[in-house]
Design a protein that fits this description.
Shape: globular
Number of helices: 6
Structural class: alpha/beta
Helix content: 40-55%
Radius of gyration: 15 Å
Number of strands: 5
Distance between the termini: 28 Å
Strand content: 15-25%
Low-confidence stretches: none
Order of helices and strands: HEHEHHHEEEH
Strand order of the largest sheet: 2-1-3-4-5
Largest sheet: 5 strands, mixed
Mean pLDDT: 97
Amino acid sequence: MNVPDDAEIQALAAAVADRLMGCGRLLVTAESCTGGWVAKACTDLAGSSRWFLGGVVAYANSAKTAVLGVPVAVLEREGAVSEAVVRAMACAALQRLGGQVAVAVSGIAGPDGAAPGKPVGTVWFAWAVRSGDQLEVRARCRHFAGEREAVRRQAVREAFQGVLEAP
């Protein structure tokens, strides 16, 4: 298990900053299990307002619905930790906050919360990129090992790596 430390997370945030400023894009976040850690890492960097617009922490399902408009039916059918939900979160973040790039994270950091087929450490990610009238959304699931903080740190790293892979 390779758990990132603060220095690695900050280096990734700086790489994201360079990438976004280089192409004139703005980032927004929609976070659940990371509790705003992605946004925190962004705003830890001086000058982040040049490439980071803001984020939403929607931890409870009711917040995902009220703040981001994730349909209740999707949450009930798929569960909060699912591809459908993170895709909806990423698209909503772009729609409601603006910007051109969004990252959404929802997972089970533990120690509780496991469900059949979704063990502790299951985290879904979605990245949405808007270019003119085009919207590209991609998602993936990861299974991280370790205690709660280790899962969350790995999720923050994955969120940033996905932004760096965005077209």
